[in-house]
Every structure is written in structure tokens, then in C-alpha cells.
Amino acid sequence: MGVRVALSSxxxxxxxxxxxxxxxxxxxxxxxxxxxxxxxxxxxxxxxxAKGARVVSCVEDIPCGAVAITRxxxxxxxxxxxxxxxxxxxxxxxxxxxxxxxxxxxxxEGEGYKIVILGERSHPEIQALLSYLHGEVTVVSxxxxxxxxxxxxxxxxxxxxxxxxxxxxxxxxxxxxxxNALSWVHLVPTLCGETEARQRELEKHIAENPEDIVVVVGxxxxxxxxxxxxxxxxxxxxxxxxxxxxxLKSLQFPSNRSFFVVSGTSTPDSxxxxxxxxxxxxx
Length: 283
Ligand code: SF4
What we know:
Elements: E1 3-5, H1 13-27, E2 32-35, H2 42-50, E3 54-56, E4 67-69, H3 77-85, E5 89-91, H4 96-110, E6 114-118, H5 124-131, E7 137-140, H6 143-150, E8 157-161, H7 167-179, E9 185-187, H8 194-208, E10 213-217, H9 223-234, E11 239-242, H10 245-249, E12 259-263, H11 269-282
Parallel strand pairs: 1-12, 2-3, 2-4, 4-5, 6-7, 6-8, 8-9, 10-11, 10-12
Helix pairs in contact: 8-9
The chain binds iron/sulfur cluster (SF4).
């Protein structure tokens, strides 16, 4: 019996960077504001707010001279410009992987490609990306849509994906484009492997240790945390989803079982460590 923590757990690279930038701005003594939650995790937000950060819902609530930290998804160009025009210092915490998609899309558009994005139009990352492009841009998320748009054509099309677009659907698109020999379609790999890596590690662990109890740690409104929970459920594991160690303390577990701890990409490493330490006392 024991407790194992997934190798890929705690903050992902992009969230870690956003958190560190916010901490740095706070340490410098600035009034720090977030337009909406910087990180989809109540504990992470509580840590930053305890140091003085404030969450607001509109630009007008951020005073001149303050610092606004952008989310790792990025923010639309006009919003950043609006903040700067109001005398707010914008700290760009856009994840480098998200930034890369913005840069590539802009570059390809400049080279004459029509841009197609695999993603969700309403997602903040896509909203920010669209704001940097000027030409005709289409966002598609399923086969019927890309078939309708790309089946016929001759002018060059560049297809990029939202960094967190499901890998399985991305691969379905790649296979379809290859099978149909769409020579005018240039597919650019822009997925972030982070969420898929966590799912693969969990899947492998369950296959090798089907009796282990899975503890998923992360915000209840975090989509990638939910995917881990649903995956463990689908694989037949006994699985618990907690936001922090306090929530864990109220739960009852069967005795004589080992635990596997996984987390979403916006869960602080310290919360994962607390959960693991508590479980180690119990086994
Ligand atoms: S999941 Fe990937 S793309 Fe998104 S913030 Fe984390 S590292 Fe960046």
C-alpha cells in the first residue's frame, strides 16, 4: 500500500508562469488586478488575493497606475490597448505556447494563407487569437464543419489548433486531410501536450494498478480536471475529486488500498503535496 503522485501534476508551465508574474508584481508593491480569474482554482486565487490582488469584471474597475495581469489564454488586442490607454500597465502572462499560435497565424496570414482554426469560437484563447488576425478566419470544431469548408478548394489554407483542442479530434482531422490528399491545406501542429500527457499517465496507471483509488485534485470549474475525473470513472476506478486537503478530510475510503494522486493544470503544487501527505498518514 502506498501513495503515488502523477509525474505530470501541479501547475502546467503556462499557469506557473502566470502565477509567478502575478507574485512578482505584488512583491514590487503594485496594485494588481485580474480581469476575471487568472487561474481556474480557488486556492490559487485565494493565495494571490491574500497578497493583495483583486479580481474585477470590467476594464473600468482597474485604476490608472495599476497593473493588470493577463490570463495564460491571452486577451484580445483591443482590450490590452484599452487598458494601456487608461494608464494601466499590462503584464502579458499569455502562455508562450498560446503566443506561438498567435505569431504563427499572423505570419501565415501575411504569407497569403486563409486561416482555419480547430477550436471553440467562444473560448478566450480563440477570442484573443482572432483579434490579431485581419482576413477571413474560420473556426471549426467538428468533421461536418471542416468537410464543408475544406473539401473543395485550391487557394492555400493554413489550419492551426487551439492549444487545448482534443488530441483525438485533431488526429481525426489530420487523417482526413491526408486521406483526401488536400494539397492546398497546410496543417500546423499547435496542440499543447500537457493535458493529454496527464490523461495518458492516468490511463496507464489505472491499467497497471486497477485497484488503486484515484484522487483527482483541482478546481470544480476546471475543464481539464473534469476530464481526468471522467476518465478514471470510465476506466472503472474508485475516484474522488477534491479541491484541497480540507475536502479530502471529510471523505471515507476503503481500507488496505493504495492511492494515485493526479491534478489539473491549474492546481498549485503545494495543494497536491498537501493531499499526498495527508493520504500517506492514512495508509
Ligand atoms: S495547458 Fe499548455 S497551453 Fe495551456 S497554459 Fe498550460 S502549458 Fe500553456
